[in-house]
Design a protein that fits this description.
- This protein has one domain.
- The protein has 15 helices and no strands.
- The longest helix is centred in the C-terminal third of the chain and has 36 residues.
Length: about 375
């Protein structure tokens, strides 16, 4: 949580400036490697990828002071969420609603399979019900946010929560780099299906945003980013229904009190509401010949373009911060059994998503398109 002492700290602001500097350097590095080194007319390497790589190299080479890390975490959380909120300007409410209908069946399937199979395997491996539940909910729904929300409900201890978060971070970062390539290979003619795959199978909101932006930059397919974002927001909203269920399934060993659940409203991230508000603004702005009765069409288009650029800039800064705070040392702390369960969880959710998309993805896209 941001407090007054953070704002007053010079090092905290240095953390923010470091993330901004890495994001700027990443743009130049992507162009240099793609154009000057590889010889392409346009770099096939995205600035997002370079921001994460440069950030990881710096973060794992230099021990950053605590206040600096605090500034980086602000970028990786609040700045990220502002960027996602601003992405809503890319879609009208109708488009956002249709994308939600398109994503919902795949999200439900992935969550159902992930929660059941991961929990069962974890128990068979001798892991606690709590650790198994945290890895299951973190993989199936929304990464660290779901883990933090679920841990007190099932009375997981600090070590279990830390192991689960480490697993989500390791495999989520790997998926962020690999899945855009895999999604394009499997669905080269359908960025919509690729977007569903990214939004359903990658753990963290930040990781989905990074993967979607990589896909957009590398394959010139903004639709993939739009649908990946909406799909991930749908998964986030599923916390309202799923976390109480997880409390029942995984909290019995330590007598977790199902009555001590957070209020449902606290499980609706504010940036989801902000995303909907921005979509509503886009919708209202396009209703008449003069947006809001006062702007010329050219002026409205300039506003929309500015907000789109601001969203992508916020996400780029957030990805730089994610790289700067992704420490390899966390891998060693996981332990082999939780690591293997985290790997299994990632593969199951990704595999089930691919299978369901292959079976009825095209039919869903066609059906939703007929409603627009």
């Amino acid at each position: 949580m941001l407090i007054a002492e953070d704002i007053k700290s010079v090092q905290w602001w240095l953390g923010i400036l470091l993330a901004i500097a890495v994001s700027v350097a990443a743009g130049y590095a992507a162009d240099f490697v793609g154009v000057s080194v590889l010889g392409f007319a346009k770099s096939p390497i995205s600035a997002i990828m370079m921001a994460i790589v440069i950030g990881m190299l710096i973060g794992n080479s230099i021990a950053l002071p605590g206040p600096v890390v605090g500034g980086l975490k602000f970028c990786a959380s609040t700045i990220l969420r502002i960027g996602i909120m601003l992405l809503g300007i890319r879609l009208s409410l109708v488009s956002a609603g249709l994308n939600t209908l398109l994503a919902l069946p795949f999200v439900i399937i992935a969550i159902t399979v992930g929660l059941t199979t991961v929990g069962l395997l974890g128990r068979s491996m001798g892991l606690s019900r709590q650790l198994s539940g945290l890895i299951a909910v973190g993989t199936s729904i929304c990464g660290c946010t779901a883990i933090v929300a679920t841990a007190p409900i099932i009375k997981a201890n600090e070590a279990e929560a830390s192991y689960a978060i480490a697993c989500i971070t390791v495999f989520g970062v790997a998926a962020m780099f690999l899945y855009p390539v895999l999604g394009h290979y499997l669905f080269p003619d359908s960025p919509s299906l690729a977007g569903i795959f990214l939004g359903t199978s990658i753990h963290e909101t930040a990781q989905v945003a990074g993967a979607g932006m990589m896909y957009q930059a590398q394959y010139d397919a903004p639709q993939a980013l739009d649908i990946a974002t909406v799909t991930k927001l749908v998964r986030n909203l599923c916390m309202i229904a799923v976390i109480p269920l997880v409390g029942i399934l995984y909290g019995r060993e330590r007598g977790a009190d199902a009555g001590k659940q957070p209020h449902w409203a606290s499980m609706i991230p504010w940036f989801i509401i902000g995303f909907a508000v921005m979509s509503a603004i886009r919708t209202v702005g396009e209703l008449g010949d003069r947006p809001f009765g006062m702007l010329e069409p050219a002026q409205w288009n300039a506003v929309v373009d500015f907000l789109k650029h601001a969203a992508e800039r916020c996400l780029l800064i957030a990805m730089a911060a994610v790289g700067l705070t992704s420490l390899f040392a966390g891998i060693r702390s996981i332990g082999m059994k939780p690591f293997m369960l985290g790997l299994f969880a990632a593969l199951v959710v990704g595999g089930v998503t691919l299978l369901s998309i292959s079976l009825f993805g095209e039919a869903m896209v066609s059906a939703v398109a007929s409603w627009s």
